[in-house]
Amino acid sequence: MPNIPNTNADILKSKTRRGLPAPVDYGTATTAEYIQALDNFHQVFGIRAGDHVVMLTDPLLDPRVIQAVQGLCKSRGATFISYMGESTRYVTVPDEAKALLERATFVVSTWFASVFDPFCQNLRRKKGQRWVKITFFRNIDLWNTPQARFPIEIVGELIRGTARLYPEHGPFDLRITDRRGTDFRVPFSAAMREQMKKDNRWRGHNYANEDGCYVHYMPTHGPNLYDPIMFGNDPEHKVGLNGVIYAQWGVGFDKPFETPPGVEIRDDRVVAVHGDSEEAGVLRDFLIGGTLEELGCGHNPKAPRFDIYPAGPNSPGALHFGINGVKESEYLRRLMPNWEEPHVHMDLVVFDANVTAGNRVLIEDGFLQSLRDPKVIECARRYGDPIELLEQFPV
């Protein structure tokens, strides 16, 4: 097993580590590399002739991103309109935007409400709208980066490889442990697993060309190892999440934790934050009573390993525990007033996790096992050297 960078010392040495909003030097791609990134963009945005595209934006989005989507619409014979909200942090769609959305066949959004608001969910489910969430495409200069040009077919096969690692029958426990003492369990029912595998993201389908789809661009985040969508987002459903998470880092903190706080979850809710550090106090202030909204896992081998802003890492095997507290964090509001996520949210990050699903290993010491899946390697070989593509993580 390769010794991939995953320690606090590795994080602190990294030139691309980022837990707070900060300017990033994306460099300049060669012409050939830039064309690869553009081709990925064109493929993901499955806009068709006759589509009516609505784009939900915010004041801090690079206006060139809007122009890029508008230009693609013009080239494909689709109509386009954009609506700028006050920020990305809407958890529900404001009434004045609902009329615009109801006319759409295709939506591009920066808003947090895109996935959680039942109004948006029903537009996909009942009207077949195709949605692209652009959390990770806020600056057009990202087209110069390795993650932008990484072949999307490999990302898809890697995701399917991870799905194949889950047990095929019956209930099982998803268990996460690490060297700091994390021990967290998600009891999976067979129904949860079957619902999970129906999702287009878990099918490794990262193109917005299927009715009712919801995809990310850039396709870096990967699907969530656990997500309330697995039981229909029913707030009354009791899963039985239990354990303690000793994260290495969290979005909103400049450096990894020297003394990791222990976030304890019992019967699906945060009941305690252990530790005497300043970070423990920050988390305790707003997470008690909160719920785990996602357990995310990166799936793009060329995403910078230690860039966790704004919504957790996208590198394979790196995890983020997305917890929603019961009130906004004053700390996050002060430190990141223009954050793309609601200030009730916290992404706790682990780079060195061991994850098992039943008796199957998904991640070992931060290394995603599907990177060694024969089908993934075969897919990668069509694009270059599988070792370089899959196992050389930029830090």
In short:
By secondary structure, the protein is an alpha+beta fold. The chain has helices at residues 8-13, 31-44, 63-76, 95-102, 113-116, 118-127, 146-149, 152-165, 190-198, 278-287, 330-335, 374-381, 386-391, and strands at 52-57, 79-84, 106-109, 130-133, 172-177, 183-188, 214-216, 224-226, 242-246, 249-250, 262-266, 269-274, 291-297, 319-324, 345-350, 354-357, 360-364, 367-368. The chain has an eight-stranded antiparallel β-sheet with strand order 12-11-9-6-5-16-17-18. Strands 2-1-3-4-7 form a five-stranded parallel β-sheet, sandwiched between helices.
Could you characterize the architecture of this molecule?
By secondary structure, the chain is α+β, with helices and mostly antiparallel strands. The strands form 3 sheets. An 8-stranded antiparallel β-sheet has the order 12-11-9-6-5-16-17-18. Strands 2-1-3-4-7 form a 5-stranded parallel β-sheet, with helices on both faces. The protein starts with 7 loop residues before the first helix and ends with a helix. The chain has 2 domains: 31-144, Response regulator (Rossmann fold, 3-Layer(aba) Sandwich); 150-206 and 218-391, no CATH class. Helix 8 runs antiparallel to helix 12. The model has no long low-confidence stretch (mean pLDDT 95). The chain is globular and about 55 Å long. The chain is built from 13 helices and 18 strands. Strand 17 and strand 18 form a beta hairpin.
